Automatic annotation (TrEMBL):
Organism phylogeny: Bacteria, Bacillati, Actinomycetota, Coriobacteriia, Eggerthellales
Protein name per the record: Hemerythrin HHE cation binding domain protein
Signal peptide (from-to): none
Domain Hemerythrin-like span(s) in chain numbering: 95-213
Any Pfam family: PAS_10
Length: 418
């Protein structure tokens, strides 16, 4: 909490505490909605997104069930009319501008849905519309992998817990509706459109009134600049941007690197004492020697994704492959692994780590079988030679093609000859 207040700057803490009390009284049934609204209008007058964000953070000790979708969607209604927002003047390529641009595109799609739902269903029209709507997953993934981690580091953990719940709820609503469309269950599909439109608008309102203004206040320009390569790597929804995220990443590294002379002198000093330094210095592996560059290239070219969580449950590494199965960004590094997963699956993550740490289990696997893809996920407890728990290795692989193989192939066959 203190970290968050430090990053928010000047905040009226007394006002925030009053907002918290009113919201608690409303949620506990001591005040009706109208009574709570009247109290806020009379005693608070007006409030900023940062003050609402700080008030929400004060609920972090509440029961996890309080993060239900219904609770989340009811919170901001109390503050309608007294909330002051404003995010003008950001450059077009600012990460928050990209989110806002996506929201504008999403709002147009929602208008198309409201128009199309009035007419007899023509499946191809809805398929085209839902193909576009489902791009919202990129918008949500960037928030979860890029924006939430930085806020979390500054003490604002509510997006990681509360808003992630709503993100996933909306994503699943769209996925389930698409399944109804594909199954030709026309009546059930059409019946869901009004709720989906309302929930997406509600989510965007929360982003634009609380999440984005608070992020602008708490996150530094340098941190936003560092987000750009990870944002581009995950991708954008509905935006036609030609961004080379690897080139952008190289430029950012060059801009932030220490003085070259100092680095060269340090490398020479380490080399003098036989300590590997630099990407081309050899490292003593258990069975051979490799340079850091070679290690990175090997991991980057494996036909699977690897990540490592240390004994303190902190994400330390993931392999940066071109065929990544699930979106990730460098902002997951250094995070508690529990905060890198949706709330619905956190208990599974905790159980795996606890059983590995206690020595009760050494490995566990899962698989996802869906149309056109079979994803295999494997977790392995990492222990040293003395059996001490050192962390968890996660491996994910798209095994769709492997499962389709039959008979044998013993002759050299290049991809172009298949």
């Amino acid at each position: 909490m203190e970290d968050m207040k430090k990053h928010l700057g000047q905040v009226d803490v007394a006002k925030v505490k009053l907002m918290v009390r009113v919201e608690e009284d409303y949620e506990n049934g001591k005040l009706s909605f109208d009574e709570a609204r009247a109290t806020l209008e009379e005693r608070v007058g007006s409030c900023t997104p940062a003050e609402i964000a700080l008030a929400e953070q004060m609920f972090t000790e509440e029961d996890p069930d309080q993060c239900r979708k219904e609770d989340i969607q009811g919170k901001l209604a109390l503050f309608e009319g007294i909330l002051q927002t404003g995010m003008e003047g950001l450059p077009a390529d600012h990460p928050l501008s990209r989110y806002m641009q996506e929201n504008e595109a999403c709002k147009k799609i929602l208008l198309e849905i409201e128009d199309l739902v009035q007419y007899p269903l023509i499946k191809n029209q809805w398929i085209e519309l839902y193909d576009r709507l489902m791009q919202v997953k990129r918008h949500l993934s960037r928030k979860q992998m890029q924006l939430y981690p930085v806020l979390e580091q500054k003490g604002f953990t509510r997006p990681t817990t509360t808003m992630w719940t709503l993100d996933d709820y909306v994503r699943d609503e769209i996925r389930d509706a698409r399944a109804l469309l594909d199954a030709d269950d026309d009546d059930a599909f059409i019946a869901r459109q009004q709720t989906i439109v309302a929930d997406l608008r509600d989510l965007m309102a929360k982003e634009e009134s609380i999440l984005f203004p608070t992020s602008l206040k708490m996150i530094t320009p340098e941190e936003f600049e560092a987000m750009k390569s990870g944002d581009a790597e995950i991708g954008y929804a509905w935006l036609d941007l030609d961004v080379d995220h690897r080139a952008l990443e190289r430029e950012q590294k060059a801009a932030s690197s220490p003085d070259a002379t100092f680095v060269d002198e340090l490398a020479a000093l380490l080399g003098k004492h036989g300590i590997a330094a630099g990407p081309d210095a050899e490292l003593d592996m258990k069975t051979g020697k490799l340079t850091l560059s070679q290690v990175n290239l090997m991991l980057q070219n494996l036909p699977l994704d690897i990540s490592f969580v240390d004994e303190h449950e902190i994400v330390k590494f993931y392999s940066d492959t071109d065929h990544r199965i699930f979106p990730r960004s460098k902002n997951v590094i250094g995070r508690d692994v529990k905060n890198c997963h949706p709330r619905a699956s956190v208990h599974i993550v905790q159980e795996i780590v606890e059983k590995f740490r206690a020595g009760e289990e050494d490995e566990v696997d899962f698989w996802i079988n869906k149309p056109g893809a079979f994803i295999y996920i494997y977790y392995k407890a990492v222990r040293d030679e003395d059996g001490t728990f050192c962390g968890v290795l996660e491996m994910m692989q798209d095994c769709t093609r492997i499962r389709s193989l039959e008979d044998s192939r013993t002759l050299l066959t290049w991809g172009s000859e298949k």
